[in-house]
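User: Here's a structure from my thesis project, written as structure tokens. My advisor, Dr. K., wants to see whether a designed sequence matches the one we expressed. Can you design one independently, without my sequence as a hint?
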């Protein structure tokens, strides 16, 4: 008996084992966040300090996202993911020790929360890249939705366990359990055997990998749109997430149990929505899901803030969970489908930087609003701002036709006439085209797409020049850092690049193919 479409990726043993490891990793995150947020309310009455727990947890992803993505793309992903779990376990043990000793202060708790957030910052890009590696393209949306279920199942189980320990054994034991769960996830990850990426070239250098990752996202229209939309959505949702402990204290039955119950209801709503997403995707495009999800999230968040009792707050926050996973999963899927595998972790790290950057900024902004005007005013203002921005950002589409980014073979040969050292550079390439002058405007339009494609694959600069003495003669140039980077671009060649190449060549009217010339920078100075 086959599993339903939404659960089909779990049929694969590799994805299934990694999914359970991700579930455990997310449980550690939620247990730490719940325990830290509640502990902060016992250490200080400041709404700003309570909101800063959320900022301290998410800010590392904003600061370290792209470097961690670069490391995930150029190192062994299995060992890298395992090391992040070891980090989380060590930080949890340190926090537990200080809690048992009664040595925690509000400021020290923020520092430890920040250190725990570093683990999240380092592990998220690599896991995002692994998902697309172990499932096929057709199952990718369902696999990402299952990751959302993992996140939200952990949002139910983690806070429930943490709440029980908070009410019974005490905060320190939450961090002890956190360490043991992180260690269990570490064991599962180490048992997985990742597939080595095939290459005949030396590994990328760290700084170069960071530059190319940022440049790839900057030159991708889809990734620019996704990054902007997820930043604004996370800014909108940050107010409720950051101030939820204070919302729980206001409701009847205030205490760790109410806080846990609110988080569990939100997680349950997200799980329900994740199971329904395949049906919704069949009826709505990605842009429509993002718009309706943002509107529902805004309305439901305001409902939670203004609810006079838990009986109204719980259904409202259930709807918040549904809206959150629907919007976040749709944006995440759009990002994954816009990235080739060679730069996937770096691209997803920029996506996560936008998400967590919006969350951290929103927590600080709406925490200060809450301190001045109250918790309800802060959450309602976030909802209103998110709603008012929708008409202005709809032109940044995350839908449309997905291009084929599977690796594609290329017939180009890179054997230089004279020996060239891999580190020699820069390397300039020129390509001469001869076209019908009547088609010049259409040719230039295709060449603008070529510019973006060359830069996404690592070129430092690009230009197109028209020969003033010969009508219809154009010279394209692009520059690479060195000969090794010039070779590396062939390993980054995709089916979309091959299609774009055919579009360029369709304009070329000469019987001979376009003339390619390569020049290597001469660093010697002659006087």
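Assistant: Designed independently from the structure alone:
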């Amino acid at each position: 008996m086959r599993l339903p479409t939404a659960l089909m990726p779990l049929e694969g043993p590799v994805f299934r084992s990694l999914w359970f490891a991700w579930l455990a990793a997310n449980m550690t995150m939620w247990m730490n966040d719940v325990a830290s947020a509640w502990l902060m309310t016992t250490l200080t009455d400041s709404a700003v300090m309570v909101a800063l727990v959320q900022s301290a947890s998410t800010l590392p992803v904003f600061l370290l996202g792209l470097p961690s993505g670069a490391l995930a793309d150029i190192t062994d992903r299995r060992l890298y993911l395992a090391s992040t779990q070891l980090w989380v376990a060590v930080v949890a043990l340190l926090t537990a020790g200080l809690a048992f000793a009664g040595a925690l202060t509000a400021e020290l708790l923020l520092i430890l929360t920040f250190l725990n957030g570093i683990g999240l910052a380092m592990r998220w890009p690599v896991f995002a890249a692994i998902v697309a590696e172990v499932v096929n393209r057709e199952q990718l949306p369902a696999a990402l939705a299952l990751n959302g279920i993992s996140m939200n199942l952990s949002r139910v189980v983690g806070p429930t366990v943490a709440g029980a320990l908070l009410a019974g054994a005490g905060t320190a034991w939450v961090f002890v359990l956190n360490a043991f769960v992180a260690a269990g996830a570490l064991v599962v990850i180490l048992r997985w055997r990742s597939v080595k990426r095939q290459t005949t070239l030396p590994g990328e250098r760290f700084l170069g990998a960071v530059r190319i990752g940022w440049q790839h996202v900057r030159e991708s229209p889809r990734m620019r749109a996704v990054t902007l939309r997820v930043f604004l959505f996370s800014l909108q949702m940050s107010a409720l997430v950051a101030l939820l402990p204070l919302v729980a204290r206001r409701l009847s039955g205030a205490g760790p149990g109410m806080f846990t119950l609110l988080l569990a209801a939100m997680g349950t709503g997200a799980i329900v929505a994740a199971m329904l997403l395949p049906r919704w995707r069949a009826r709505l495009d990605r842009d429509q899901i993002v718009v309706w999800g943002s509107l529902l999230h805004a309305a439901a968040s305001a409902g939670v803030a203004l609810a006079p009792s838990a009986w109204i707050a719980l259904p409202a926050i259930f709807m918040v969970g549904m809206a959150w996973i629907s919007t976040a999963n749709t944006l995440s899927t759009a990002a994954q489908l816009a990235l080739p595998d060679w730069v996937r972790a770096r691209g997803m790290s920029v996506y996560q930087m936008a998400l967590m950057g919006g969350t951290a900024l929103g927590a600080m902004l709406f925490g200060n609003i809450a301190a001045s005007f109250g918790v309800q005013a802060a959450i309602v203002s976030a909802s209103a701002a998110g709603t008012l921005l929708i008409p202005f950002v709809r032109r940044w589409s995350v839908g449309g036709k997905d291009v084929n980014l599977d690796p594609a073979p290329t017939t180009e040969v890179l054997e230089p006439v004279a020996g060239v050292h891999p580190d020699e550079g820069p390397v300039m390439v020129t390509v001469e085209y001869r076209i019908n002058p009547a088609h010049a405007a259409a040719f230039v339009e295709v060449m603008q797409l070529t510019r973006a494609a060359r830069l996404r694959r690592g070129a430092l600069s690009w230009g197109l020049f028209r020969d003033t003495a010969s009508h219809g003669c154009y010279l394209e140039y692009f520059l690479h850092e060195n000969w090794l980077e010039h070779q590396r671009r062939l390993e980054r060649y995709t089916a979309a690049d091959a299609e774009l190449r055919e579009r360029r060549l369709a304009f070329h009217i000469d019987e001979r193919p376009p003339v390619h010339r390569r020049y290597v920078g001469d660093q010697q100075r002659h006087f």
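When you compare it with your expressed construct, this may help: The longest helix spans residues 13-43.
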